[in-house]
Amino acid sequence: MHSPAAPRWIAHLDMDAFYASVELLRYPELRGLPVVVGGRRAHQPQTLADGTRRFAKLRDYAGRGVVTTATYAARAYGVHSAMGLMKAAQLAPDAVLLPADFDAYRDMSRRFKAAVAEIAPVIEDRGIDEIYIDLTELPALRERVGHDPLSSVRALAQEIRNNVRAATGLTCSMGVTPNKLLSKIASELDKPDGLTVLTMAELPTRIWPLPVRRINGIGPKAGAKLQALGLRTIGELAQCEAPWLIERFGRSYGQWLFDASHGLDERPVVTHSEPVSISRETTFERDLHAVRDKAQLSEVFTRLAQQVAADLQRKGYVSRTLGIKLRFEDFKTVTRDLTLPAPTGDAAAIRRAAGLCLKRVDLSRRIRLLGIRAGSLARPNAAAPAVRAATRKAAPDTAAAPAAPLAAQSELPLFDSPA
Ligand code: DCP
Ligand code: MG
């Protein structure tokens, strides 16, 4: 085990404009242009008779979709992730709009992680385009005692970046520091295609001038509260005494704020993380009504169940807790879930369980978003978990898990009766 005193070298690697960069591999003629990912299938580029491609432009977009990601050329116009596409169109009307292709992004995600693992296998997966890597025990660093440690760290980080580039054709940005907290901040300091190596000695010059919100864990609420207290930068936060912060933010968060501002973070790089749940959801182009749009809703519901089943299968899980998420026209969100007597990965069983959850929701309002979530994940070959007839948030009349065989192909009528 690592003693807290022994310094570590932890890297945070984050792919640059990830989804958009994957698209540029496929459409190299778009390189350097403002490109936004976020369209629907209708925005798929058309190949013309002469072999050239015709792309959809943001100016022609109408709808409620949001920007999933934008190339750096598009960001120069102020376009960013989560911005409405109509708003983005005002800023960059000539930007190219492309539909998202999640299968391609997932495939590229696996490839870049494999390329890192060839050099540095201690990896914590943080999602589709980012990972932490513990470099501390790598021979390339350990065997160079007596050499300039910073230059070995830099060379190793560069080698990892080169391998990612060679395997994927994509660039990434990397921060390498003594811990995860600082590396996460550092990887953003020289984006895109940047490498930032920091020691603790550089905390005052490189980290303290940054706004408090750059710390992963200071969200909008805490950020606003710190701002109201007159604390804008991480350095200003570091000037505060721990008891003063604890008084205002509570014992654990106050102490954490103090530690974070001083660049302290002992969290290990965790290599085996199991997903808590697998889910799919979709936002409709227009709000749908349970009765009038029954056919369309039912179709979407089936598709979501099939997607969740396919995700489960690909990742090698079965699920025992199926749930649904609904967002209504007034943006109110409700969830319902249901624990099955035995885990399943079957699309029909998932749809059926989700259908039972749906029956517990008042469907008189129009629906904006629909999602299905599979939780309590297990490996199919693992010993069956103890059967426990439990439902959470269940109405008394539907508390029992379905008794019929879950793989039954019969489809329950869904969206048939708004409560
Ligand atoms: N993403 C998303 N919704 C968001 C933000 C991001 O679906 N609100 C997706 C698209 C991104 C990917 O996740 O390509 C990675 O997210 P990042 O925050 O790392 O953003 P990018 O990789 O696109 O850009 P950057 O170069 O800033 O890392
Ligand atoms: Mg990224």
TrEMBL record:
Cofactor descriptive note: Binds 2 magnesium ions per subunit.
The UniProt entry, under InterPro entries, shows: DNA/RNA_pol_sf, DNA_pol_Y-fam_lit_finger_sf, DNA_pol_Y-fam_little_finger, DNA_polymerase-Y, DNApol_IV, PolY_HhH_motif, Rev_trsase/Diguanyl_cyclase, UmuC
Binding-site positions, Mg(2+): 14, 129
Q: Which domain of life is it from?
A: Bacteria
Question: Where does the record place it?
Answer: Cytoplasm
* Enzyme's top EC category: transferase
Membrane-traversing stretches? none
Catalytically driven reaction(s)? DNA(n) + a 2'-deoxyribonucleoside 5'-triphosphate = DNA(n+1) + diphosphate
Instruction: Give the positions of the site Substrate discrimination.
Output: 19
Tell me the SUPFAM superfamilies matching this sequence. DNA/RNA polymerases, Lesion bypass DNA polymerase (Y-family), little finger domain
* UniProt cross-references to Gene3D superfamilies, sorted A to Z: 3.30.70.270, 3.40.1170.60, 5' to 3' exonuclease, C-terminal subdomain (1.10.150.20), DNA polymerase, Y-family, little finger domain (3.30.1490.100)
- Kindly list the cofactors needed: Mg(2+)
**Primary residence:** cytoplasm
Report the sequence similarity comment from the record. Belongs to the DNA polymerase type-Y family.
The name this protein carries in UniProt is DNA polymerase IV
Q: Which organism is it from?
A: Azohydromonas lata
Give the encoding gene's name: dinB
